[in-house]
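Q: Please design a sequence for this.
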C-alpha cells in the first residue's frame, strides 16, 4: 500500500500488511489442522469404533482463533463485503465519506467485541477456568489468542482510519479509495489477472528444461 500521491510506500501500512498476511496464514493452517483432526476422528469412529477425543472442542478453538486473525488481512485488502449499489453513483467526496464511515463502523463493532472479550479473558484467568471436557483446557489460552486477533484488527483499523483521514483532509480521493474504498469489478478482475500471471510465471520457472 502507498501513502498519498507519490509520497512512496507507507512503512507502517507495509508492516501491518506483512503481519496480517502471517496472521491469516497461521489462522488458515490452524483451521486446516482442525479439519484434518476432525476427519481422522470421524474416520476412526466409522472404521474402528474409536475416537481421538476432543476433536470437536479443538476445532472450535481453531475456528475462532483462525477467524479473528484473518480479519485484519481482509480489512487491509478491502475484502470486507460492501453493498455498493448506491455507492457507485455517489460523487467522489460522498463515496469517500462512506468509505471513512465504513471503517469507523467496523472499528466500533470490533471495539465492543474486544472490550467484552477482555472481560471474558480476565474472568477465566481470575477463576482459573478449564473446559468441561476430558481435555480440561485452560480456557484463558484459546481466549487470549482469540482476543489478540481482535486487538490486531483494531490496531490495523485505527492505522487505516488515520491514513484515510489524512487523505480526506488532502482531498486525495484516489489514494483514499485505494486504501479503504469498495473494490470494483475492474479491481477484482485486475487482481485475478495478476494472480494468474504470477502463477503461470511460477509454473514456467519450475518446469523442466
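A: Design:
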Amino acid at each position: 500500500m502507498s501513502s498519498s500521491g507519490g509520497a512512496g510506500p507507507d512503512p507502517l501500512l507495509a508492516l501491518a500488511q506483512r503481519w496480517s498476511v502471517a496472521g491469516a496464514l497461521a489462522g488458515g493452517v490452524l483451521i486446516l489442522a482442525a479439519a484434518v483432526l476432525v476427519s481422522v476422528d470421524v474416520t476412526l469412529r466409522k472404521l474402528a469404533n474409536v475416537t481421538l477425543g476432543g476433536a470437536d472442542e479443538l476445532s472450535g478453538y481453531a475456528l475462532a482463533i483462525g477467524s479473528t486473525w484473518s480479519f485484519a488481512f481482509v480489512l487491509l485488502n478491502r475484502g470486507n463485503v460492501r453493498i455498493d449499489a448506491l455507492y457507485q453513483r455517489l460523487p467522489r467526496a460522498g463515496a469517500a465519506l462512506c468509505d471513512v464511515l465504513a471503517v469507523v463502523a467496523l472499528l466500533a463493532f470490533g471495539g465492543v467485541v474486544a472490550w467484552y472479550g477482555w472481560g471474558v479473558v480476565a474472568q477465566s484467568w481470575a477463576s482459573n477456568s478449564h473446559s468441561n471436557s476430558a481435555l480440561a483446557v485452560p480456557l484463558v489460552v484459546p481466549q487470549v489468542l482469540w482476543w489478540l486477533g481482535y486487538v490486531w484488527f483494531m490496531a490495523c483499523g485505527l492505522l487505516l482510519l488515520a491514513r484515510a483521514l489524512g487523505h480526506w483532509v488532502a482531498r486525495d480521493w484516489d489514494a483514499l479509495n485505494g486504501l479503504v474504498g469498495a473494490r470494483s469489478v475492474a479491481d477484482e478482475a485486475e487482481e485475478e489477472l495478476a494472480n494468474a500471471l504470477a502463477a503461470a510465471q511460477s509454473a514456467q520457472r519450475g518446469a523442466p528444461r
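Q: Thanks. Anything notable?
A: Helices lie at 11-48, 55-76, 92-127, 140-170, 173-180, 185-206. Residues 5 and 190 are 21 Å apart (CA to CA).
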